[in-house]
Amino acid sequence: MMRTAAAALVLALTAATASAQDLLVRGATVYTMTDAGVLEGGDVLVRDGRIAQVGTDLSAPAGVPVLEGSGWFVMPGLIDCHSHMTTQLERGGGSDRHERGQRVNTGLRILDSVNPRYGWLESGALAGGVTALHVMPGSNAAFGGRTVLIKAVPKSTADEMVVKHPLGMKMSMAATRGTGTSEMREWFTKGQEYAARRARWEEGGREGEEPRRDLQLEGLADQVSQALQTHTHAQTAIEMQYALRMKREFGLDLVLHHAFDGWKIADDIAAADVPVCYGPIVHSFADENLRTPGVLSKKGVKVSLNMDSASDFQKHLLHAVQIAVRYGMEPMEGLRSVTINPAEMLGVSDRLGALAAGRDGDLVILDGDPLSTFSNVLYTVVDGRVVFERGAAMDAGR
Amino acid sequence: MRPLRGALAGLALAASAATGQTVTIAAERALVAPGREVAPAVIEVRDGRIASVREGSAEGVAVLHAAVVAAGFIDARTTAGLSGLIDAYDDTDDRGGPVRPELRAEDGFDLADPLLAQALRSGVAVVQSGPGDANSIGGQAAIFLTSAPTVAAATVRAPSAVIVSLTEDAKTTYAGRDRLPTTRMANVALIRQALIDAQRHAAASSPSPDAGHEALGRVLADSLPAWVAARRSDEIATALRVAEEFDLDIVITGATEAAPVAELLAASGVPVVVEPTDVARAATGELTATDAALALHAQRVPFSFANGDVRAGATLLDVARDAVRRGLPADAALAAITTSPASLLGIEAEAGTIEAGRAAHLVLLDGDPFDARTTVRAVLVGGRVAWRAEQVR
Question: Which residues of B fall within a CB distance of 8 Å from A145?
């Protein structure tokens, strides 16, 4: 049965490739998010779902549809590094995002809770130019489960949407105040012991009885060995300090999420060389917290912005950029914070987050500067295919 | 509804009257197999088996007349026999924990279950009955006749499958009890860990006896299929994901939202059992069992209808009729309640068609089975008239 199921997935993938489109956007302002910077009158050519060329005065290969982009702005598809989309549905079924039956859920995978149907993906993510989502379990438990990075285009199965799985382990420092931190240490220690026990058995030529494979301990072992990143909810300075201590003590590959108080401990975060996924900006509590993205990025911290959304609010990610810029983030850094920065912090910058040959053909095309609140997303393109279109249909082949 | 006591008394009488006797059935049409018809037909039943099927009219000896006779229907996935219509008699789902591969259907199977009588009256002669969808791993199902003097006599094969559930039911059973699972992801983690533990048990040199590990060990060794309840399309995708990880032989049950993943199911070769639409527990949207059946038929995915973990309401025949009303060819609908479930359960040499040598499971109707006005007039199980309406035409 395995062979046939695998064949099915291959078939599905082949089908996706065959239907991926070619596209040339011509004469637009192109934010490449690479060393090439911003191209005025720039062109982006996508072939077979991947970016083939970025430059000026590109000619359209035969049969490739052309979008005349004069006056438009093009940037890489937006990536939200902290999302709950597809784990809670528009109707029916309740939420599959927090496991409430226990505090340690390192054996769980959010992929098993992802439902591409009725998950607001078109109206909630694609309509705002958001093309990739780091979907994580919620923050009610100290350890929430394994995370996944998916493309925001609904497919018949979650597996076909996966960019990277498993990507990290979701944690919550909010669930671990007081005695919680000692409990967390105990679990990480168990993870270390488990990893050591398995390693001894492997190194001993797999002699004797195999240590029991335990999904929960395996998750913890993957965290302490950095096979998995650790993505933790940490809103306040004290929660972030907890997380930084855990990183030091157990060698975690840490990313801080929310980080509202980040400006208060910016030097500590910078010294620890830990990336920060800030947001949601609409839920930042104190006004001065909105300075955090600017303050941290100026200290050299890699910052991304999130909407922390499970519904249609996901689409306002560019507004988060606009607000962060208003509160002091450098404009270009603001655009990086929803493109190349999350791609780098999630370990997928070879595919996502920049407009350069070989990357996935994921683009956002706007009728104005993405830093302006007056601008609209005209087209969202994923793997070379227009998956959202505002207004008139494009004039293919012109 | 006919009073339970009366129905049981009828069964007992039929049993004693039919033993060792010959029954001759004359029918205007005999649907001997999907796409094959004999009209008019005379069917002779002897010693519980079909002795002959021939075209023509019965003379003199006919004891039963029917407008249409078909092979007794087969419900490949039900809780009938375990569930009862009254909560007090409900033995479907144990609530002591979500992973229960050790539980066996035959230990809870009750021939007096009114749901079983309901199945029989709607033409069902054979069921695969087992735990419901409320636990991650519910237990072992078995194949039973819907009418027999004792559970032992009713048992065709036990166990026949291990019931696994990926549905909303499985994540609500323990909600509010500080216990897994309350999410789909935790449900899957429990199932995966149980399979991993069974792998370890199977690989051990002298494992201590453990009924649960052993049942899952048979699933891992492909000597017992896992019947996985998956109503939503994401649940179906998850079923395929887990089956691939552990190289399992699975059957998808429920399958209300099979349409969006029908192509994938076709490529996977996994058989599907379509259960009645159950809005309360299914599904996120507008799709129905009939949509699933039509999509699977279009993709040539082998499928069966079943009553599933549905305690009351639609019968097997009702589900098939709705699909025919919306365009499923009658042959495909008949196959989905006779020959398809027979092969799925591995009893195709015994049941599912009207042929000499097969067990005499027969349903007598007063019209075309897929006409909503048609009623079942009598049902033979193993050659015995297990139920008959007060008057057989």
Answer: 185
* Least Cα separation, residue B386 to chain A (angstroms): 39
Mean pLDDT throughout A55-68? 93
How many C-beta atoms lie closer than 10 Å to residue B87's C-beta?
A: 8
pLDDT at residue B60 in the model: 66
Give percent of chain A above pLDDT 90: 80
Do the Cβ atoms of A145 and B192 come closer than 8 Å? no
Do A118 and B285 make contact, defined as CB atoms within 8 angstroms?
Answer: yes
The pTM of the full predicted model, rounded to 2 decimals, is 0.91
B62 pLDDT higher than 80:
no
Number of continuous H segments (helices) and E segments (strands) in chain B:
12, 16
* CB contact set of B21 (below 8 Å; sequence gap of 6+): none
A227-247 pLDDT, tens digit per residue, is 999 999 999 999 999 999 999
Chain A CB contacts of B173 below 8 Å: none
The answer to whether the CB of A214 falls within 8 A of the CB of A194 is yes
Q: Which amino acid is at A293?
A: P
- With tokens 């997928």, the residue in question is A348
Inform me whether the C-beta atom of residue B378 falls under 8 Å from chain A C-beta atoms. Answer: no
- Mean pLDDT, rounded, of chain A: 91
Question: Beta strand pairing status for A168-172 and A229-234?
Answer: parallel
Instruction: Kindly report, residue by residue over A136-170, the tens digit of the pLDDT.
Output: 999 988 999 999 999 999 999 999 999 999 999 99
- Residue in chain B closest to A9 (alpha carbons) equals B264
* Tokens matching residue B218: 């048979």
Distance CA A249, CA A243 (A): 10
pLDDT (0 to 100) of residue B313: 64
Is B253 in a helix, a strand, or coil?
Answer: strand
Contact residues on chain B for A90, CB-CB shorter than 8 A? 284
Residue B2 has a pLDDT of 34
Phi/psi for A259 (5° steps) reads 55, 40
Average of per-residue pLDDT across B249-271: 96
Q: The tokens of A5 are what?
A: 């199921």
Nearest Cα residue to A377 out of A127, A87, A141, A84 = A127
pLDDT digits (tens, 9 = 90+) for B174-198: 988 889 999 999 999 999 999 999 9
Q: What is the rounded distance in angstroms from the CA atom of residue A134 to the CA atom of residue A80?
A: 6
Chain B (189-208) residues lying within 8 Å, Cβ to Cβ, of chain A: 189, 192-193, 196-197, 200, 203-204
By the 8 A CB rule, do A228 and A195 touch? Answer: no
Bond before A211 cis per omega within 30 degrees: no
Q: How far apart are the first and last CA of chain A?
A: 48
Query: Which 8-state DSSP code applies to residue A285?
Result: S
CA–CA distance, A308 with A172 (Å, rounded to integer): 14
Smallest CA–CA separation between B131 and chain A, in Å?
22
C-alpha torsion sign, points A108, A111, A112, A114: positive
DSSP string, A95-131: B-S---S-SB-TT-BGGGG---TTSSIIIIIGGGTEE
State how far the Cα of B344 lies from the Cα of B215, in Å rounded to an integer: 19
Residues A19-52: tens digit of each pLDDT: 358 999 999 999 999 999 999 999 999 999 999 9
In single-letter form, the type of residue at position A157 comes to T
Interchain pair A1, B270: CB under 8 A: yes
- Looking at residue B45, its pLDDT comes to 96
* Phi, then psi, of A314 in degrees rounded to 5: -50, -35
Please report where in the chains the tokens 């519904």 appear, as a residue: A311
Distance from C-alpha of A35 to C-alpha of A24, rounded to nearest angstrom: 21
The amino acid at B325: R
